[in-house]
Amino acid sequence: MSILFSVDHDFNILNYYKEVPDVILIVEETEIPAHRSVLSEKCEFFRTMFSSSFFEAKSDKIRLKETCLDAFKVILKFIYTGQLPTLYHECQDCSLQHAARTITSQQLFEILLCAQFYMMDDLVNDTISKLKWKCLLNPGLILNNALAYSIDDLISRSTVSIQKEAHDLVKRKVLAQLSPRAWEYVLKLPLDTYESNIFEALVNWMRNNPGHSEAFPKLLEHIELHLLDKAHLDMLFKPTQLIDPLFLVNLLSQQQQQAQLVKKVVDRNVITGADDLRIIDGKKNGSKPTITPLFNKQSIVIDLKQRYLLNCLKLKSEFALSYTISMSTDSQNWDLVIDYSKYECSGRQVLYFTERAVRFIRIQSDSDYYYSVSNIEALYSTNAFSVEIDPETTLIVPNRNLMPSAMLDIGSPYTVRGRIVNGYIEIRNTCSMVYEFRQPYLVGSLKLLLKEVSSYYAEIAYSYRQNWTRVISEENVSGWRIATFERQPVVLIKIVGTMDPNVSEYFRLYGIECPAT
């Protein structure tokens, strides 16, 4: 289906205005009778032209140079009737009559230029609106003309449409009808897809447009060929040669040298904003600053667009999530740096790892459920120097108490279930309070403050799906209580009051440290 613009080329001025015409407009050697009064009233261009200071004010015939006849008919019809052209949806069974009256995007642009020249602002806005609609179906053709006529609004709209389809460039042939100029413009955009997909789309276009072969080398300079494998590069020479082999060798060598450079930015996020994110696998969700995997996929891949020295990644998970983080310099060879695949994480994640050169970041989850991440930060953090990372589990080994000093300060890095009253956590005996860290930590101790004689036990786990491990169980005790155990991953801490409710109805916890200090 395509959206087409209907114009009645048989429009007759005398059907709308009965007065005798007093001026003849000559467009492309065609004489068009018209009325000075109507033209002056509805059009600023003609109002100025017919003023006494211009020669045309007294001429019976006026030649309008550099004006497209068909486009001018639309202008004239609007002046006389106030009617804007109508949009039609053309289906496969459209009548021949309608098909004969429809015009192309190119003609729409001619109408737009004509309306701009004759200062018909309403028609300009309406035509741009129709062209924006066409962007949804064929953004490539619209971009060609928008660039040729320097119409910024349409350049922006067609660019947005192309970027939305970036992950499926080859299959949908989104770029198949681009001009060389439009191709160069698009290749400078941060398209959200793998470089190999952009390359395949370009090579397909090159094979279908041999007449533009002089532009091939310049366009290829915008492709990061060093990210492609040999099979892709061979597409430039099979079944027929598209470029000079020596050109490819030289360009590839230059790119490989440039790609080796690693930038170090200390304590500052190298991702400057949501618009700066290039998501080559996954998608951005409209106005929300969240990223989700594509349909039927489980991974999100971010391209930082150059290599950075990193040792820290921060992100926010909107839902409970088990995940891994892998990193790469070329999107082909990946190193696993964070493995939280068996832990339940949520909220803000602060992840440290051994410093390394990174360009691509892959977030992967085996979850069968929808997930999204947001607020992604990638940086070289000096805080990492004071953080111990367990090399086997990639978990942080905390060297300080993860809990707040004041029991009322409920917030990062954990949540708690239990009633907060006057500076302590209170539950009924035989019930439980649960602390849940946003992410797993490797800990081996726990410290509790009881100001009243109490009986209780405490258990730990790294997932609600895991069996709980009891680390301490005591009766009729008070004061600071310390539990030490083999260091292990912890996400959840559960404390259960066990005293007979007839003796004491409530269990109260006045302080907690994890790990114990």
UniProtKB/TrEMBL annotation:
Top-level division of the source organism's lineage: Eukaryota
CDD domains on file: BTB_POZ_ZBTB_KLHL-like
GO terms, biological process: adult locomotory behavior; circadian behavior; modulation of chemical synaptic transmission
Coiled coil: none
SUPFAM superfamilies assigned to the protein according to its UniProt record, in alphabetical order: Galactose-binding domain-like, POZ domain
Positions of the BTB domain: 21-88
InterPro entries reported for this sequence: BACK, BTB/POZ_dom, BTB_POZ_domain_cont_9, Galactose-bd-like_sf, SKP1/BTB/POZ_sf
Pfam families: BACK, BTB
GO cellular component assignments: cytoplasm
Protein name (Swiss-Prot/TrEMBL): BTB domain-containing protein
Source organism (scientific name): Panagrellus redivivus
